[in-house]
Structures are given as structure tokens and as C-alpha cells.
């Protein structure tokens, strides 16, 4: 297979400034990742789309649900065999009640854009199912409950034993917005008295709402994974865990997402090509050594578990 014909990325950092859900390190995470992609993985800066909720006056696109999905759709629509695609999300995640039969007490995973127009595991499944054969699409989600963010993707690395936080000198926030808080916020936008989150999302966002809330139940259940597919998910934690947003209180250090920082450290300290499995296992070790109570996971096909992370090019390959 021809590797790295085009290298494209969508990087999304959501800090939710001036809200009760404010985080501090998410924009730093994706800006730092942009540099890693360019310097170490041969990405052309013109093929990297950056979406953040930086203060007014920035020329960047705001990461609303519609804008994030539009950026991902452009990337997938422009892909062909041999292309490498990468989506890095740093921000809040949440869990929503599952609509699938037999899953009355189960929950599905979603990320929370700045406008609360949720992007769900089924949206990512739909993207993966659209990938041209011979491409690679890697998602790195530094958010709470990010395990399983590609619906029906095979778990390669799951939960291990929990390591307690060691109380380092940092303030930290959990990168999660509970379902009831999401529901309360959406209810304030629609003024509709219902606990059905899909009703609120469809009322306020219309066709821009997640496909999970637009399709009837029988069509949702017909969404199957293509086996094997080209989707690869590196999640900051297991589906029932939270991810940390760190804000150092000493030395003037920058705020950062614990998982994003761990992955970047692993990549910078290992100039040679690493497999997706190696990246996740090494990031786990970094987090364990720092005392974090989260366990990154890997979801992909057996072949992609051993494939090089982002098909890292050799020195004689151009982007």
C-alpha cells in the first residue's frame, strides 16, 4: 500500500471560556499537536484545519457541532487510497441514554462542542463507514467517556487496574459534562419540557443535529461496522472513566490535557515509528507514573493495532 499520499488533520480544542464548564488546556493541546504533526509526521500546514474557541478576534473557526462535522466531512470527502487522516479532539465528553433495544440501562458516548450540539459515537461510525479503501483515519479523543467513541469498533486495549492520583501541584478539572447538565442547558435553549435530549437537539439544531437523533430506531440498529474498517480510536480513558485537564499552579507552566500531553511526550521521545498499540501502552505508562486515574484505550482492527501510528513516513517521503 502507498503510504501517506496526502496527510490531513482536523484539530479541535474547546476551553468553554467564561462558562461554568471552563477548561484551560484544550487549545494548548491541539496547538502543540499541530507542531508534532508538521515536524515529526510530515503534515503540510495547509492541510491542517484548526478549530478553537479562542477569544474574540481570532481568525479560527469556532468548534460548534456543525463546524466540526463540516471539517470532518471535507477531510473524508477529499480522501483517496493512501491518504492519512487525523482528528484530535480536546474538550468535554458526555454519556447519553442508549436508544438501542436491549440497552435500557446502557449509555452511548458523545463529545460536547461549544454549542452543545453533541457529536455521537454513531456520527463517527458513519464517517468511518465512508472511508475509501486503503486510507487511514485516526481519532485521538482527550475527553471523558471517550472509550467506544466509534460505535462497534473492536477494543484492542481496555481497562487495567486503577492508579490513584498522587496529589501533584496542579489544579485539575474533569473533562466531562454530566448528561443532566447537558439536558438542562438544552432545555434552557428550547423551553421544551421533556427529558428526551433528542427532542431538544432536533428542535434547536435541526438537520445539524447528530444522526443518532434523526434516524428511526430500526435504521439506527442497521448501522453496522465494516469489518475490518480503517477507523482507529485512541481514547483518553475507558467509557466509564474521566480525563483530566491540568492547570499548573507553580512555575508558570501551561495548562494541558493529561492524555494529549502523554501522547505528545511519547511521540517526541521516540523518533522511530511506533505502532498504535505501542503509543497507547506508552501513554498509559506516562499517566500511571504521574498518578493519573485514567486508562487510555485503543479501538481498531487487529491489523491497525500493529500499524504505524499515522503511517509515520521515512525521511525520504514527502507529505
Short account of what is shown:
By secondary structure, this protein is of the alpha/beta class. It has 10 helices and 13 strands.
Could you describe the largest sheet, including whether it forms a barrel? 7 strands, mixed
Work out the number of β strands.
13
Radius of gyration: 19 Å
Q: Termini separation (Å)?
A: 16 Å
Topology order in helix (H) and strand (E) letters: EHEHEEEEHEEEHHHHEEEHHEH
Q: Tell me the β content.
A: 15-25%
What is the global morphology?
Answer: globular
Low-confidence stretches: 160-168
Helix proportion of residues, in percent? 25-40%
Structural class designation = alpha/beta
> Strand order of the main beta sheet, please?
2-1-3-7-10-13-8
Average pLDDT, rounded to a whole number, is 87
Number of discrete helical segments: 10
